[in-house]
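User: Could you go from structure to sequence for me? I need the amino acid at each position, not a summary. Structure tokens:
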């Protein structure tokens, strides 16, 4: 179940307001002592997070399917995607929904009932937490998220069912602007920079990759090297973008890699302002990267 983006905080009766985590979405399945962690694009990630799998295996429920986010927190208890990307710190699973428990399918049950089942099933530990509720008032919740530097908040209708896909029953309001973008090429390095200068970014619109600008900050030497090695097998002679790219030193690559990018805003001509590279994502196909329209 995915949240729909809105541009302003709000307060509504019968809704709750939770911290929006900056990590990797994950479903966890428990069958007896066997635990499987599955990403949004249906890839088994159990081996990547063994301590989380071990902690879930110890939960009392015999069968369990839960939805959540794997995150790594900084010293201020703020989740940071780039920490997860670089494995800087201990991963934690933040649970926010329970969709199956001990033989009962809960997807048609209201969120209030699913949250109760989640709280009965999950015992918080060093690797497992329940998603944090910020305040009963949505406006105050947003101010808390803003003050603490969270990525944003998620507002949820307590009467809503769990459905696959994007839903108006879950709404997100961002404090920090971050999104996924497809890498379609890179520019030559200059000065003391090695490997490449900037990444050329795009999003899909009506089936074509639309150029939205370049990002040249957020890289250390190791990241530059790692990305450049990945590009070697993806280079192509023609541009993957459907729109013009006016970069004389551009080298184009097949649009296979998805990057997480922070930015301040969109410009009037559809480009990113002050973008910063945060890391690669392997949990979302490039073809699914589209600009989210606000509701």
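Assistant: Here is the amino acid at each position, in order:
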């Amino acid at each position: 179940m995915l949240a729909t983006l809105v541009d302003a905080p709000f307060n509504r009766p019968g809704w709750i307001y939770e911290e929006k985590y900056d990590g990797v979405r994950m479903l966890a399945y428990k069958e007896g002592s066997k635990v499987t962690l599955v990403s949004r694009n249906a890839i088994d990630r159990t081996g990547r997070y063994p301590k989380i799998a071990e902690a879930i295996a110890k939960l009392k429920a015999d069968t369990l399917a839960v939805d959540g986010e794997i995150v790594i927190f900084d010293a201020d208890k703020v989740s940071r995607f780039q920490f997860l990307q670089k494995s800087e710190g201990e991963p934690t699973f933040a649970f926010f929904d329970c969709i199956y428990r001990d033989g009962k399918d809960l997807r048609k049950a209201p969120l209030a009932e699913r949250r109760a089942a989640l709280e009965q099933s999950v015992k918080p530990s060093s690797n497992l937490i329940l998603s944090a509720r910020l305040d009963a008032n949505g406006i105050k919740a947003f101010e808390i998220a803003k003050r603490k530097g969270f990525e944003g908040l998620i507002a949820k209708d307590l009467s809503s069912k769990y459905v696959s896909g994007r839903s108006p029953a879950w709404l997100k309001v961002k404090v920090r602007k971050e999104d996924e973008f497809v890498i379609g090429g890179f520019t030559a390095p200059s000065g003391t920079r090695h490997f490449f200068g900037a990444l050329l970014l795009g999003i899909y619109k009506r089936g074509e990759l639309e150029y939205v600008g370049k990002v040249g900050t957020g890289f250390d030497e190791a990241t530059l090297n790692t990305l450049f090695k990945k590009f070697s097998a993806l280079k192509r002679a023609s541009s993957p973008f459907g729109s013009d790219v006016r970069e004389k030193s551009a080298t184009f690559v097949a649009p296979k890699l998805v990057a997480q990018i922070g930015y301040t805003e969109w410009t009037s001509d559809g480009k990113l302002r002050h973008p910063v590279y945060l890391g690669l994502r392997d949990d979302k196909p490039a073809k699914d990267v589209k600009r989210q329209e606000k509701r």
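One structural detail worth keeping in mind: The radius of gyration is 20 Å.
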